[in-house]
Design brief:
The complex is a heterodimer of chains A (about 240) and B (about 500). Chain A is α+β, with helices and mostly antiparallel strands and about 240 residues long. Helix content of chain A is about 30%, strand content about 35%. Chain A contains seven helices and eleven strands. In chain A, the strands form two sheets. A nine-stranded antiparallel sheet of chain A has the order 10-5-9-6-2-3-1-4-11. A two-stranded antiparallel sheet of chain A has the order 7-8. With about 500 residues, chain B is mainly α. Helices cover about 75% and strands about 0% of the residues of chain B. The radius of gyration of chain B is 24 Å and the shape is globular. The chains are: A alpha+beta (about 240), B mainly alpha (about 500). Chains A and B meet through strand 2, helix 2, helix 4, strand 8 and helix 6 of A and helix 1, helix 2, helix 5 and helix 13 of B.
């Protein structure tokens, strides 16, 4: 079913090779898109041999940015042109609909763009059902991203991005003298066609989480606009 | 072409080509080089490029990975005795295996080799333990550095001048291209599982403290053994008559350096295996990657050391000698600075450090920012070293004010910059310094007829000192810029109820 709420503000996510984030940020700045944040991550290995040889897992930058709905389409087009997203492997950009933002963030957006009250277009819903995407987020113990990705790829995923994180579960926090110890986690982001989402999430959960006994969490988010993904390859694949 | 491979190739070209071009340009203009020296240099440069690529790849996959895992495990074990014992053992073992230490031991004939090696190793072990205790008990790095450098300078007043340069050089020498990534990653691992606010700041500063260890140990030995001064082996420039000799020059040296690197890597591998068996239990894939990474490090470092020792050493010596012999001697100062500016890029451990700084700070301190800071630092230190070679001013006239400034700055810059700066001091003075810059200074010294032991040695100490100031200055600039930036934002956040919530959709998960 469609995620049928309308979101006036979207979270733009741009994933590019390390070092190109500044260029993406420049485009966003020129377009008055505010609240930018950069995270460092790395891509996932696509072939086992290359991974063993250490020639995989290219380093990535992930940029987050809040964009009013009406300005998403031109911004994505410009990002795509500037960073060459039309060629495979150059990076991707997509937006996540938001159900709410804090007043401060909203305020920031409005001050950044004097014309915040743009006409509302519901263009996020122009995509055909078969072209819809979802963002799968898996949280696993540190060192599990390889297994997560293997399982996901088996179910049709083409690639992902890994972020390093620390767990914050209240009962897991340990103290040792002056330091607080938190377990390390890895967050794997996988953009998939809506039709394949179930299969990928099931594969990830079944093959990895249950088999190796590692605990972990996976959830998915609706994605409204995508650029830079090899669309035909993703959606053209049979399930 | 594979994206990462392409990146690596570009990275190593970027590191080695600039300094190669400078040397070539010099050779074709003001300092004519012998053809055999030139050929050795060019082949050496190729060795360096390939070696650098393998090394940085391997350091990433193996050294960093092992250091990090071991560090993480140690913190999570939460047993103080285990941490102290393990850190001490790591410090001692990796120092004993460090090839540069054997060279240092030979340079100080007054002290028996074994005594020197063990003393330095215990020194590094002690300081590695100390740097971890510092993190646990939240001791301030600046005060520790001040206390220990005060001790260093106090001791140095009682040690003969000729021995002093060797002592200060030892600090840079023992933090080589294998130990640096390992210790850096150990710091990263020790702090990776921490959630308190100082975690990121504390992941640096280990190399900083560890490079004081050797200086103090050698100075103490200098007091006990009352040495007559160090010695050095005069360089013999190889002369080639045909192409096979060119190949043989490298071919003969290769097994020696291979052995050195194997010896240096073995204890780290052993340590990792013990950890893997008892604590880590990594799965197959990361394990295979670590072994492949080890192999890369082995190949890379062997090629690098062979290239730099056989190819770069004679060229450095010959350039230094001829430049200082020119009618206008002082040209060696700006040319030295130019070489210094570019040569730091070819120092393998520097690449590793810069990358880690970028990772830890989430890109706030970028690799290129670090590199430019280090390049300027290196240029300054080379300039000053050349002035020293020409004039024979005592090393202390530069080191004492330099360290005073560096330690003073540590109270004004963000803490992470102090830690990174003192780390980079040990990192900047690696094999490239020892095999190119030192011969360069020695050659210059021979030409001016100065005292090689007091004037030429000490280059390493200078190279280890200037980054402390430069990187901290970078921190000052950074602080100044970030303080100014957020001033433009008005508006205090309004109450939380003002969240904008559009209609909340029908639990849209069932595709």
């Amino acid at each position: 079913m469609m995620t049928d709420f309308y979101s006036p503000v979207r979270c733009l996510v741009v994933i590019v090779d390390r070092g190109k984030g500044e260029r993406a940020a420049r485009v966003c700045r020129a377009r008055q898109a505010s609240v930018r944040m950069v995270l460092l991550g790395h891509g996932t290995a696509s072939a086992e041999l290359m991974d063993y040889l250490g020639l995989d897992e290219p380093e990535k930058e992930l940029m987050l940015c809040l964009v009013p709905d009406g300005r998403v389409a031109p911004l994505l087009a410009e990002l795509s042109a500037e960073l060459g997203f039309s060629r495979p492997g150059r990076g991707i950009a997509f937006t996540l609909p938001l159900s709410g933002v804090s007043a401060a963030a909203n305020c920031l957006m409005e001050t950044d763009a004097a014309h915040a009250a743009l006409p509302v277009e519901r263009e996020g819903f122009q995509m055909a059902e078969s072209n819809r995407f979802e963002l799968i987020v898996c949280v696993a113990e540190h060192g599990m991203s390889g297994e997560v990705m293997d399982a996901a790829r088996g179910a049709g995923a083409t690639g992902g991005t890994v972020l390093r994180a620390r767990g914050l579960g209240g009962e897991e926090a340990e103290r040792f003298l002056n330091i607080t110890i938190r377990p390390e986690k890895e967050v794997v982001l996988i953009l998939s066609a809506a039709a394949q989402k179930q299969a990928i999430m099931k594969a990830v959960c079944a093959e990895v989480f249950s088999r190796t006994g590692e605990r972990g969490i996976a959830f998915s988010l609706p994605v409204s606009d995508v650029t830079g993904l090899n669309l035909t390859r993703l959606t053209g694949q049979p399930e | 072409m594979n994206k990462k491979l392409k990146l690596k190739v570009l990275e190593s070209l970027h590191a080695v080509v600039p300094v190669t071009l400078i040397v070539l340009a010099l050779g074709m203009t003001i300092v004519p080089m012998e053809l055999s020296t030139l050929l050795l240099f060019l082949v050496g440069a190729v060795f360096l490029i390939v070696g650098m690529g393998f090394f940085t790849l391997g350091a990433d996959m193996a050294m960093m990975s092992i250091g990090e895992q071991v560090g993480t495990q140690l913190t999570r074990a939460k047993k103080l005795w285990l941490i102290v014992a393990a850190c001490f053992a790591i410090g001692v073992v990796i120092t004993v295996a460090e090839p540069d230490l054997q060279v240092l031991a030979r340079q100080t004939p007054a002290v028996p080799d074994l005594v020197l090696i063990l003393t330095v190793a215990v020194g590094v072990g002690f300081f590695l333990v100390l740097s971890f205790l510092r993190i646990l008990f939240a001791w301030n790095l600046s005060w520790l550095l001040i206390a220990f450098y005060a001790a260093v300078f106090l001791l140095s007043a009682f040690v003969p001048d000729a021995f002093l340069a060797v002592a200060f050089d030892s600090g840079g020498v023992t933090t080589g291209p294998i130990t640096v990534p390992f210790i850096l990653a150990l710091g990263l691992g020790l702090t990776a599982v921490r959630a308190d606010k100082n975690a990121d700041n504390d992941s640096f500063g280990l190399v900083a403290l560890c490079s004081i260890g050797p200086i103090l140990s050698v100075l103490i030995l200098g007091l006990i053994y009352d040495p007559q001064g160090g010695s050095y082996t005069p360089l013999s420039l190889p002369r080639l008559s045909h192409t096979r000799e060119l190949w043989l020059a490298f071919g003969r040296a290769l097994p020696d350096y291979l052995r050195e690197v194997v010896l240096a890597l073995a204890p780290i591998l052993a340590f990792f295996l013990v950890f893997q068996i008892f604590f880590l239990r990594l799965r197959r894939r990361p394990l295979v990657k670590i072994f492949v990474g080890m192999l890369y490090t082995l190949i890379g470092l062997t090629l690098f050391l062979t290239g730099v020792n056989i190819g770069f050493m004679p060229a450095g010596h010959s350039i230094g000698r001829q430049l200082a012999g020119l009618p206008v001697r002082w040209v060696i100062v700006p040319i030295g600075m130019l070489i210094g500016y570019y040569i730091v890029k070819a120092e393998p451990a520097v690449v590793v450090l810069n990358k880690q700084v970028e990772d830890i700070t989430g890109g706030a301190i970028s690799q290129s920012m670090m590199m430019s800071g280090l390049s300027v630092g290196m240029a300054v230190s080379l300039g000053l070293s050349m002035v020293r070679v020409l004039t024979g001013v005592s090393l202390m006239w530069f080191l004492v004010p330099g360290y005073l400034i560096a330690l003073g700055l540590s109270f004004f810059v963000p803490r992470i910059f102090t830690a990174i700066a003192f780390d980079s001091g040990g990192v900047a003075s690696g094999p490239m310094t020892a095999t190119f810059l030192l011969p360069f200074a020695m050659g210059a010294c021979e030409a001016v007829g100065g005292n090689i032991l007091t004037d030429a040695f000490g280059v390493v100490a200078m190279v280890a000192m200037t980054p402390l100031i430069m990187i901290q200055l970078l921190g000052l600039v950074y602080q100044w810029k970030t303080k100014r930036a957020p001033a433009a934002r008005p508006e205090r956040p309004a109450p939380i109820e003002e969240e904008i919530i559009e209609f909340g959709g029908s639990a849209g998960e069932d595709v």
